[in-house]
Specification:
- Two copies of one chain form a homodimer.
- The first copy, chain A, has eleven helices and three strands.
- Chain A has helices at about 15-30, 40-50, 50-65, 85-105, 110-130, 130-150, 155-165, 165-175, 175-195, 200-220, 220-225; strands spanning about 40, 70, 75-80.
- Chain A has a three-stranded antiparallel beta sheet with strand order 1-3-2.
- Chain A is elongated and about 55 Å long.
- The interface of A and B includes residues 64 and 92 of A.
- Chain A binds a DNA duplex (30 and 30 nucleotides) through α3.
Chain lengths: ~240, ~240
DNA sequence: CCTCGTATAATTGTATACAATCTTACTATT
DNA sequence: AATAGTAAGATTGTATACAATTATACGAGG
């Protein structure tokens, strides 16, 4: 669930705890810390030059973000993502991104729509050039715009959480260029539907966009990467 | 987002932090702490007989659960729920409870199905007797069973978060007996669909169940209670 | 050689001390 | 009287000290 309309965001940049939190999140999402790796308070503290207190508080936040698991009196461990988790997230996101697109059709501002168009235009350029990093960045930003445009702090926050959570996987799988181009075309269709005021269509397209993204991940070896590496409950896909 | 399959739950009962966390959450949800009320570390600590450290850590968790907002160097405040928030949550829940019911149709165990039937049977009894507290309890439990039955830790956790989050409102509005009876009949229909293996129908019914619940809240004065009491962004409903 | 138990070390949990920041009230100046 | 400045108090942020718990290593007994 977490917090919503908070101008002073929880990951506040200016406190030590906030900086530790951001750093650790980044390191986990980027894969610097592997799954099931243990994070020790003193080690992290020394590495970042802070005491245990801010580290501990950052741990509590990371736990609620689902990035680590804290076992009382034992330790903090980077959580693993199973193939089943990824499948579930995309199922949930499919519905919620659809809802988001539907709501955004009524609520989107002129500025947001313009940024969307620019985003798609730029992405096409980078797709042709094969700039994968920029593609990923633009993809993230496209969804962020959509989340902002739905005018629901709660939905926005929920989607952002899920989106961030699968970034770990995405970095390894979206790196195929063919999907990048197809994905951007789907973005364009969604944008066109929103622009035309067709909420139903926008919802369906956003819905489908997630399903396609997931199918592509499966094709490109999601199973091999995250298959049975975990607690052995990777069943579905 | 928060943590998922964690046998050692974050709100661990045996640490001071865990107890403080649970106590504060309970007090916020029950309405003992009013919206926008400031929570001071020392005051809470003295009241519960602990130092500031576990209180601070509990605060971090409450913040990520969306129950309080922490402004750096200033204080912790109980978050307000606007009418718009409630509307958004029910919109989201409508989709996700539908998904949950659909998945549960395939995954539910014999035991879970039996507990569901028993739950509905008991609820009918208490509805006739006008036992509102028990009704609320059984209603919560029904949805918990459904969440467990969908066999998705992620969906289960997400729905539980939203469910808990609206408890604050529910306690004030579901207290009408007529809705209790209707609600229980909807539970029965959902259960029957699941039992019959009709996933599509179960999804639609669960979907509709949420919409009905929300409509009833609006009828029974949600607006009056949570209308403009907040930041003045209660627009939609 | 294996198992159990104990002691020691390592790690987390909590309390307290100190630093930084913000709030409040009072005073001086206009 | 109103306002700005400043100092005192209150509150949060961080560091450190101590307690409790858990993991590890080693040795005794079988």
């Amino acid at each position: 669930m977490t917090n919503y309309d908070n101008k002073y965001d929880a990951n506040d940049k200016y406190s030590l705890r906030g900086r530790v939190f951001q750093k650790l999140r980044e390191d986990i999402l980027s894969g610097k810390f592997k799954e099931h790796e243990e994070l020790k308070e003193v080690a992290i503290g020394e590495e970042l030059g802070v005491s245990r207190t801010p580290v501990r508080e950052a741990f509590r936040q990371l736990e609620l973000e689902g990035l680590i698991q804290i076992i009382p009196n034992k330790g903090a461990y980077v959580t693993g993502i199973t193939a089943k988790d990824v499948k579930d997230i995309y199922m949930i996101r499919s519905l919620l991104e659809g809802l988001c697109a539907r709501l955004a059709t009524d609520k989107i501002t002129k500025e947001q729509l313009e940024e969307m168009e620019e985003n798609i235009y730029l992405a096409e350029f980078h797709a042709q050039k094969g700039h994968l990093d920029q593609m990923a960045e633009l993809d993230n930003r496209f969804h962020d715009i959509l989340y902002e445009a739905c005018d629901s702090k709660l939905l926005e926050h929920t989607l952002r959480d899920f989106h961030r959570y699968v970034l770990r996987v995405r970095q390894k799988t979206l790196a195929t260029n063919t999907r990048g181009l197809a994905s951007n075309n789907e973005h364009r269709q969604i944008m066109e539907a929103i622009k035309a005021g067709d909420a139903e269509l926008a919802e369906q397209l956003a819905n489908r966009h997630m399903i396609n993204a997931y199918d592509n991940m499966v094709k490109n070896g999601l199973k091999e990467i995250y298959g049975e590496s975990d607690e052995g409950n990777a069943e579905g896909q």
